[in-house]
């Protein structure tokens, strides 16, 4: 399910940041994600959200609050640190920073909605799936992402997308969240293109 609205695109050039969405736009996209999750999985037994650190877990917490308002019940939230599951772990710094996975509920038989901020190559999601399956056997795992920027290297597709952005391969999409960055926004950094 893709929930789209037209995103502004700026001129190609050097790596410059363009605010595609400010706080209001990000809040609107988050509300649409929560509505879509409620519509598709609200009646599912054992619905939980699991966010991929560092921003997917913050988004999952926000979505949980929105779902509680809509469903009239709490939706548990967990977070995954996928550092040890990355396929490029050997190429990280000599002492990579490994965070903590925090899931305070069993995954067996649950409907897990995996939450991330930006879907790009699919490698982050693959690592998250590997870790989730090492922790238990959910009845179902679905993927909800705030931004899908295309450029997949693995056959990964989100079940629910808040916004699709069409960007060039060298461009970068960054989600800013007030909890980490002091403000909410989606920034597009365009690389120089020939």
UniProtKB/TrEMBL annotation:
Belongs to the purine/pyrimidine phosphoribosyltransferase family. PyrR subfamily. Residues 26-159 form the Phosphoribosyltransferase domain. Pfam families: Pribosyltran (PF00156). It comes from the Bacteria. Its EC number is 2.4.2.9. GO terms for molecular function: uracil phosphoribosyltransferase activity. It is an enzyme of class 2 (transferase). NCBIfam families: PRK05205.1-1, PRK05205.1-5. It comes from Thermalbibacter longus. PANTHER family: BIFUNCTIONAL PROTEIN PYRR (PTHR11608:SF0). GO terms for biological process: regulation of DNA-templated transcription. The gene is pyrR. This is Bifunctional protein PyrR. It catalyses: UMP + diphosphate = 5-phospho-alpha-D-ribose 1-diphosphate + uracil. A motif (PRPP-binding) lies at residues 112-124. Keywords: Glycosyltransferase, Transcription, Transcription regulation, Transferase. Also displays a weak uracil phosphoribosyltransferase activity which is not physiologically significant. Regulates the transcription of the pyrimidine nucleotide (pyr) operon in response to exogenous pyrimidines.
């Amino acid at each position: 399910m893709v929930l789209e609205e037209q995103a502004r695109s700026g001129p190609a050039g050097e790596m410059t940041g363009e605010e595609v969405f400010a706080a209001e736009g990000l809040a609107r996209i988050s509300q649409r994600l929560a509505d879509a999750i409620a519509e598709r999985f609200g009646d599912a037994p054992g619905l939980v959200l699991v966010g991929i650190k560092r921003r997917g877990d913050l988004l999952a917490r926000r979505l949980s609050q929105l779902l509680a308002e809509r469903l009239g019940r709490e939706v548990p939230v967990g977070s995954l640190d996928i550092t040890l599951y990355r396929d490029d772990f050997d190429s990280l710094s000599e002492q990579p920073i490994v965070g903590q996975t925090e899931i305070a509920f069993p995954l067996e038989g649950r409907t897990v909605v995996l939450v991330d901020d930006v879907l790009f190559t699919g490698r982050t999601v693959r690592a998250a799936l590997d870790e989730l399956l090492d922790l238990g056997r959910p009845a179902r795992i679905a993927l909800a992402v705030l931004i899908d920027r295309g450029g997949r290297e693995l056959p990964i597709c989100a079940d629910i997308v808040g916004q699709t952005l069409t960007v060039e391969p060298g461009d970068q999409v960054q989600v800013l969240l007030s909890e980490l960055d002091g403000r909410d926004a989606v920034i597009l950094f365009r690389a120089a293109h020939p």
